[in-house]
Amino acid sequence: MRKIIFDLDVLRSFVTGMELGSFAKAADRLGRSTSAISAQLKKLEEQAGTPIFRKAGRGLALTEAGETMLAYARRLLDLNDEAATAIHGAELEGWVRLGLQEDFGETLLPDVLGRFARAHPKVRIEARVVRNAELVERVTSGKLDLALAWSDGFRTAHSDRIAEVPMCWVGPVLGAVHWHAGSGEPLPLASLEAPCLLRSIATKMLDRAGIGWRISFVSPSLGGLWAATAAGLGLTIRTPLGLPDKVRQLSPGEAGLPLLPKLDLVLHRAEAEASPATDRLASIILQAVRQTVEATPQGRTFADAPVTMSSRPETVG
């Protein structure tokens, strides 16, 4: 069998196009023409010896072989970039200011900071775990370089919509949910202090379903919300990411609760042209988020969406 050696430059164009949802955007990001990107994709299919794309409406979607190729391409590029970092990592200096939503403070932050610190010991990181509204305010005012936050569609000037995550109703692990939509009693709702994006979505969906509700517990922190939910003081709404063991995700339709929409996860940047240290940290965050979301039922990153070669602006998802 002929040994196949994939071109890393071609793989980078492939992965970038899938991540951005458009190969026209990938061409802009990589400083190439769309025809050059198209030629690279043709070369990739020739090297693979099988189609990696199929028609999906006006765009393209991955075949089963294409999905396999994408997974390996990411790993090859990550390994390549890690090798480059190991050789030149000591050259990165300075500091990066990072903000994350509370859901990722215990699950994502230790891994991201550990990987970055080992590769770039001369870079200092200032990390802040705060609420969504504060993250957006701080990145737009230049107080943060990067911010990983939930979004209901709002985007800052320099941001990437990187994943879509299902929302879910959350209740205690111990004991049954004693409330039901048909009981006539208002739903006891445990919530974070306003303004809270997920609280607003929860009440909107309950109102739309004609289900009464009352705020039974308010907490300034996610830890307090988990404690109240575990104690049975009320149900709450969150995503499956970062749920502690003392609470559980309710099944769809359980207790007559309405189904919930999905929520966008966005990486905001303070500047279009960031420092090399900021770019490297953003890359590690994107990789960690991708692995976390893809392990979540119904969660997906936007590489799963159809992509296009069109030069027109393309909305993904």
UniProtKB/TrEMBL annotation:
Residues 6-63 form the HTH lysR-type domain. It comes from the Bacteria. InterPro entries: LTTR, LysR_HTH_N, LysR_subst-bd, WH-like_DNA-bd_sf, WH_DNA-bd_sf. GO terms for molecular function: DNA binding; DNA-binding transcription factor activity. The keyword DNA-binding applies. Pfam families: HTH_1, LysR_substrate. Keywords: DNA-binding, Transcription, Transcription regulation. Gene3D superfamilies: Periplasmic binding protein-like II (3.40.190.10), Winged helix-like DNA-binding domain superfamily/Winged helix DNA-binding domain (1.10.10.10). Belongs to the LysR transcriptional regulatory family. This is DNA-binding transcriptional regulator, LysR family. It comes from Rhizobium lusitanum.
